[in-house]
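Quick illustration for those who missed Monday's session on complexes.
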Amino acid sequence: MAGRDYLRRVLIGGNKAKPTFEQLIDELVKPLVLLNGRVRSIPPLEQRMNITGAKVLVVGAGGAARAAVFGLKDRGAEVWVFNRTPGPAQRLAKQARARFASKGNLKKMQFDVIVHATPVGMGNGKGPPALDAKDMNARYLFEMVYRPAETRLVKQAIAKGMHIIPGAEMFVHQGARQFEIWTGKPAPLDEMMNVVQRALA
Ligand SMILES: NC(=O)c1ccc[n+]([C@@H]2O[C@H](COP(=O)([O-])OP(=O)(O)OC[C@H]3O[C@@H](n4cnc5c(N)ncnc54)[C@H](OP(=O)(O)O)[C@@H]3O)[C@@H](O)[C@H]2O)c1
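Prediction with NAP bound:
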């Protein structure tokens, strides 16, 4: 408990209101999450559309989804969160001032983009995609899974006439940002993309 008391003292002073340990961690992590979302998942979308006002469904409620939800909200998107287990999606939606989407409502909803942020499909894993084809009503699928490039979810989306934003783009933007932080020089984005595409092929 010494660490908890230390955090309280550093962040809010010893005798003020007492947030829970989870709230303290949330406050500490929030700026990193915002930066993370902006840096990693936003550029591939920004290259294709105006994010402000775009309707986005984020599928998943883990770390990658969290980064995307906060990054998108930060840029003025209208964001819904859907997850296999409703609880984490409801909590994430509440924390980010986004909206929770229930399974039953998805087939009636229309989005500009669906962001897939679960591990389903990674490494040709078995099992059904995290979203049924009937629930995929959007112009774009942003598939965060980067290996293989053509997951079952991507095949479903193509069959529905959706455009695909591949996970490899996010992967490369993440590396590019790290390159720039460490070297202070612009990252050779095209070259990095070529190398990653060759490695993942
Ligand atoms: N392209 C990139 O640069 C990049 C970067 C980071 C991550 N990613 C991708 O994003 C994925 C998720 O990463 P993460 O760090 O967010 O993982 P995580 O924190 O473990 O979150 C996993 C999420 O996926 C859901 N999920 C897991 N198995 C599922 C299944 N069989 N059906 C439906 N939902 C399922 C979980 O739902 P429950 O709450 O119900 O368990 C949870 O919401 C990674 O595996 C990777 O493919 C890509």
